[in-house]
Amino acid sequence: MINKSDEKYVSASTKSVSKNNLEIFAKKVFDKLISDGVPPIPYNYKVYFLNELDNEDPEFKKHVYEMIALEESNDLEKDIEFEIKLKNSFKFSKDLLSHVSIVYKLSKKLKELLEIQLKEAAHITNNKALIKLINAFENNLKIIDTRLSREMDEIKNIYSKNVEVLKDIEKNSIYDARYGVYNKNYFLNEIKKEITLINKFHHTSSIIAVKIKNEVFNKLSSEKSRILINRSLAKIMLKTSRRTDVVARFEENIFAMLLKHTDIIGAQRTVERLSDAISNASVFLEGEELDLKIAAGIVELKEGKDAETFIFKALKALEEAEKNDELYVIEKAE
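The line above is the sequence of diguanylate cyclase; the predicted structure tokens follow.
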């Protein structure tokens, strides 16, 4: 049976798992951990949770697994797909090296053949013998040329395939190697997943967009210095974030954070904590110590809206904060 209330398709059977029943079960799992003397860290709790769930009523167990499925992603499938692509790339690279090696050997053979023919030609005085030597040399050249052409075609074909695989890997990557944080694609996907969870469980999460203020960048004469400043910001964001937060580079000079289960007040505190940390950081560039300042845009994630809407509002709030010389601006999601 499907309930279409609020135009959201929610399994009516899943609703039968009351909040109280789930809370009672969760406490039971925690009590079991304590009684067994096992540290109640997240990993241990998850193991005990799933083990104890097997002892519950089949209907209850089914509905809880449905709820868990909403929070689980297809990360394993993505990892397998990524590994397959990576192995294909290694295979293509290995094949390329093999064919390049053959081309090298053929080129070497051609050079040796030419040297031999030149030595023989130096001692020939008879025209017929010279013509015979030249003809033999031409035949050898044709054989080598045919082999070289075949190898070059193979190299071109394998190279094209490898480039396509590498482009696909790059397109689906989640990491920004320059700054050591997640990239824009991963961040957007995480927001979409979080919105799905919010639509289901009705909790509150927030996102913030952060950048070093332009007044700081204007003091720098090189792109390298700007990159170093942004790296400092990225490191401090990682250092001050929780394990559940998602830190990413979003655009040029703009970073973002997804703060799960965090309301506007919590997001404000995060920005203030980040501002304090970065203002206390000692950064020396181009012969002087820089006083780093940030601007931020904050938006709370709501039900029934898409990720792009929230991103637009966060960037708009960031722009206003920069323009008005404020630490942050809060943009309403409505």
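Note on the example: The radius of gyration is 32 Å. Residues 28 and 52 are 9 Å apart (CA to CA).
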